[in-house]
User: Fold these one by one.
Assistant:
Number 1:
Amino acid sequence: MAGGSTQTASVGAGVVAACAKIKQTVLALARRAPGSPLRGHRLADLQARDGGLHHAGGGQTYADILAAAGRDHVEGAIKQGMLGFVVGMLRERRRWVKAATGAHFCEVRVDPDTMEVRVARWLSVFDIGTVVNTRTAESQMRGGIVMGLGLALTEQTLIDPRNGRIVNPSLSEYHVPVHADVPRLEVHHLGDPDPTMPLGIVGVGEVGITGVAAAVGNAVRHATGTRVRDLPITLDKLM
C-alpha cells in the first residue's frame, strides 16, 4: 500500500531482509569450499561489495563462490503476512517514535489597498531520514507545500446551512493554487539516516503540508498586524 509514509520503508525492509538471507546462504556455501578466504568468518565481519563478500584480509566474489559450489544461483525470500507486519510495527512503536519533521520559511506581500496576499519566497528544510530517490522525494515535498498554500489562502468548501448542499462543487468555484499562486519552492533535506529503521528511511508522506498554513499565517501577521485563525486567509478577513 502507498500511504502513511510506509511504502518505501516497508519494501526496503523486505529487500534488506531478503539480501541478508542470500548473504547467509552464500557464506554457508563458501565455508564448505576448501581454501575459501571466507572460512572462519562470521557474516557480521563481512561487507557485501564489489560483487562479493569481503573482509579486511581479502574476500571472494559471488561468481567464484557459486562456481566452487556447483551452483548457478541462490535465492532468498522473506514471507510475512499483513498480520505479522502490523504486530511487528506495533511492537516497534513501544520502543521508538518515528516521524518525519520539517520547517517552513516564507515571505508574503500584501497589497495595502486590496489586502490581496501573494507568497513571494519559500524555503523548507526536512528531516526524512535516508532519501532513496531525491527527485521523487523533493517532488512529494513540493506537492505538499502547494497543498498547504491552498489550505492557507484559497481552498474552502462552502455549504448551504439550509440543506447541506455544497455550493462550490467544481474547480471553477473551488479555488486551488495555480502556477501564478506558487513561487519558486526551495526544498532541502538533511539526509540523516534514522538508525532505528531499515536503510535509515523515515518516509516523506504528507510532511510537506504540515506547517505551511501556520507559516503563511505568521507571515501575514507580521505584514499586517492581523492574526487570522480561520482558514483560508481571504481578503475580507484582513480588511
Number 2:
Amino acid sequence: MRALWELAAASFRRQLRYRVAIVATMVTNVVFGLVRASLLLAAVAGAGGMIAGYDALQASTYVWLGQCLVGVIPMWASSELAQRIKAGDIAVDLLRPVPPAGGWLAAELGRAASALLVRVAPMLALGAITTGLAIPGHAGDWLLGLLSVALAVTLAFQGWLLVNLAALWVLEVRGYLNLYMIVMNLLCGLFVPVSWFPDWLYAITLATPFPSMFQAPINVVLGTGSPWLALGVQLAWVAGLGLATQVVLRRGLTRMVVQGG
C-alpha cells in the first residue's frame, strides 16, 4: 500500500512541475468553457428557460463544474501503455513490487489530484463572474463530489486501460482509441447533460459506464438525483471494469508468454 501511495505522490509532484503547460491548459479550458456556456444558455433560452430540469443558472454551473473536471478525468486518447506493450517495456512494470494495474492507477490518481488542485478555484471563480453559478453550500455535498470524482477518474482510467490492452492482440490501436474517445466524450455528458439526449439515446447511455465518468460527479455536487445512487452505480462499474481489466491483462500476458514474447 505504501508503494502505491509513493507512486501517486510522485505523479502528483511531477505534474505540478509543468507550470507553463498548466497555464496554457487553463487558458484553453477558459475559452472552451465560455463557448460551452454560451451554447447551453442559448439553448435554455430558446426552450423557454428550462430543459430537462436545467434552468440557465444550473446549465451554467454544469458547464463550469465540467471545466473543473476536464483535464482531471482522462478524456483524451492516450496510447502510452500500448506503446509500452509494443516496446516490451511492460516487462519492467511486471517486475515492480506492486500489481501493474494498481501502479498505473495510483499514478493516474496522483496526476488527477494535481490537476484538480489547480483547476477548481479558477474555473469556479470565472464562472461566478461571467455566467453565474448555483453552488451548494453544504460541505457534505463537496465531500461526496470529491469521492465521486475519484471514482470517475478510476473508471475512466479503466476504460482507457482496456482499449490500450488491445495492443496485446493487435498491431495498431490508434483507431480503437480514437473511436473510443469519440463515443466516450459524446455519451459521458461532456458537451451537454445526458438528460438532454433523445429518449432512445438517453436509455442507451444509461446502460454504459460513460455517464459515471463525467456526468455523475457533477450531478452529485449539483444535488441532481440521489448522490448515493450515483456513487453506487459508479462503484458497480469500477468493480466490473476492474475485473475485466484483470482478466484481459492476464490472458494477454499469458498469450505473450506462450508465443515467446
Number 3:
Amino acid sequence: MTTDELTEPKPSALFVCVHNAGRSQMAAGFLRALSDGAVEVRSAGSMPAEMINPTAVDAMLERGIDIRAERPKVLTDEAVQASDVVITMGCGDACPFYPGKRYEDWELADPAGQGIDAVRPIRDEIEKRVRHLLAELGVEPAA
C-alpha cells in the first residue's frame, strides 16, 4: 500500500453568495486560516462582483487574515462537485441545488455598501459559524 492510499482526502467546503465579494470571501478566509490547510476551501458567486468588498478586507485584516489577494470567482459545477459541503449565503434561487450534496444556508446580512461598524458583526458571526463547521468536520482550529 502506498502513502497516498493511506492518506485520507481532506474535507472540502464551498462558500457561495451572489457576489463572492464579502460574506463568502470572509468565510473562506476564516476557514483557510483556522484549518491551517486541513480543509480544501473554495468560494464562488452566482453573479460575481468585480472585486472584493474593501470593507470586508479591512474587517478581516483586523483579525489578522488578509483576503486582499482574493478575486471573486464564478460558481461552477466543478467547484460544487469537488466540495463535500456547500454553504450558501443569501443567494436564494440564484444558487443552484445539487442533489446528494450536503448543504447549509447561512442567513447573514450583506456587507455590500456597509461601513466597518456594520461589517464587524457579520464577520464575527461568520467566524463563529466557521468554527462550528470545523468541529463538524472533525478539524481542530489552528487558532
